[in-house]
UniProtKB/TrEMBL annotation:
Keywords: Oxidoreductase. Transmembrane segments: none annotated. Residues 19-331 form the Enoyl reductase (ER) domain. SUPFAM superfamilies: GroES-like, NAD(P)-binding Rossmann-fold domains. It comes from freshwater metagenome. This is Unannotated protein. One of its GO terms (molecular function) is oxidoreductase activity, acting on the CH-CH group of donors, NAD or NADP as acceptor.
Amino acid sequence: MNQTTAVILARRPDRTFVADDLSLGTIDLPELAAGQALVRNQYMSLDPSTRGRMDPGEKQYTTNFTIGGPLDGSAVGVVVESSSPKLPVGATVRHRLGWREYAVVDDAAATLCDISVAPATAWLSSLGQTGFTAYAGLLPVGRLQPGQTVLVSGAGGAVGSMAGQFARLLGAGRVIGSAGGAEKCAWLRDDCGFDVVINYRDGDFAAELPGAAPDGIDLFFDNVGGWQFAAALQNMAINGRVSMCGAISNFGTQEQPSTACLIEAVLRRITIQGFIVRDYEDLRPEFEQRVIGWLASGELVDRATIVEGIANAGAGLAGLLSGANVGKALVRLSE
């Protein structure tokens, strides 16, 4: 096999991403060298960070996409040909060359996935970077303690739904979420164990938050930024902490609040810390052991919204950025 179908960056988005910013094309596959394997991708992850990488310039922790070049991101697939004893034919592996149907991966950049303990999709969700991001944001970054009140913005999405459930399983006294739409809110309350969920799309988040957290918020896990960030700061407990995971509101059209809201960080002595999950790789074995146990016991819910086929990957990403997904957003590339 010399080529594969891939998703290409056709143009840079004009603030709001649309599926036509991407196109389908073919890219060359290199011949296998020692230590490499050919993988047939089964599922690929749809992530908000993909939108940020479409902009010009470079990020501090990754590279941006080039116009005319393929996208990449997390994927799981089956090894169909191998020149590495570490990646045997038939093994399921996770790697970073998604957004294409086949990939040639280095064994140093691929992880074997034990599908006897969790399905392939879970290795992109609860057991993947999604879950690991939630775990890192709660513990080494957020320093969560039993009995504390936790607020998670974007709780109906992949990282948010994991962060809220992990907080509950780690002993939080009260878990509050924000989500857009009645379906997500009901799922978070009824299935995921959130104590309170505020429907920011149909209600008034800033008005409802004080009643949801009458004693203040000890830890705010923020995926959204913008007006939800501003409202949360006004309801933080003294010496509260903010784990800044993302700011998906940056990619919308709504006017953003003034930085004047940051005075609350002074008045309430709040610690605000951004983080990149790759800085916490030493915690991955501990994280995987805990999550495998929670999945086995049925205490953790891992739900995915799955888009079918690489041709629909762009539409799937647009849906993710508009909040159409419940739980983890994936694209099924093959069986």
